[in-house]
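Sample entry (227 residues):
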Amino acid sequence: MNTKLANLICAGFIAALIAYVVYLYPILPDPLPTHWDAAGNPNDYMSRLSGVIALASVPCFCVLLFKLIPVISPHGFRTEEFARVVNALMVGLVVFGCAIAIFALNAALGSDVNISKAVFVCVGLLLMFMGNYMGKVRKNFFIGIRTPWTLASDEVWAKTHRLGGWCMVAAGLVMAAGAFADVVTERIVLAVVGIVLIPVVYSYFAYRALEGFGPDPEIKDDANSTS
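Predicted structure, serialized as tokens:
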């Protein structure tokens, strides 16, 4: 996705969210529910103004973050090579943030939608969306599965992210399906965490198979020349 299109989509969703917040503001409760338990019951509140600002600022923060990453990335870890992927991920997170805000506002107004289930479905869809792009992410310090072993080897990074993409899609399916199937929340979270950890563990074994953990060749040569 090119930068101009990504910016337009993000601006459109954020503008629509702000317009929706302004429209609902007079009838929103004060204090405003901002957190719900697994059963969908509110258990934390903020003032109405603070609450709507917090909800509306999430997608704005996502855009700011993704615009900052290319600027502060060091040489050798730049993101220009996969800028289209970065743009797509930015759009996905902005849409996710707007959707969560809309569900939260409607839940605050007494909607019949279970906000906890809605969040699980949205997170599941986001994971599936991001999983489709993981294999195209190149080595960097901000996006992807950043372990000592992926950052040390381009090949380990590529192998890990190909596997990580499939794992993210699987984790997303588990979250979305679990919400619809009324599975206990803790079980869903444990299953997702287990799936997401698979590529992290894999990166260690992939590095050990490809590079090993012996001393650096330069250090070994220096030791031999000294002796």
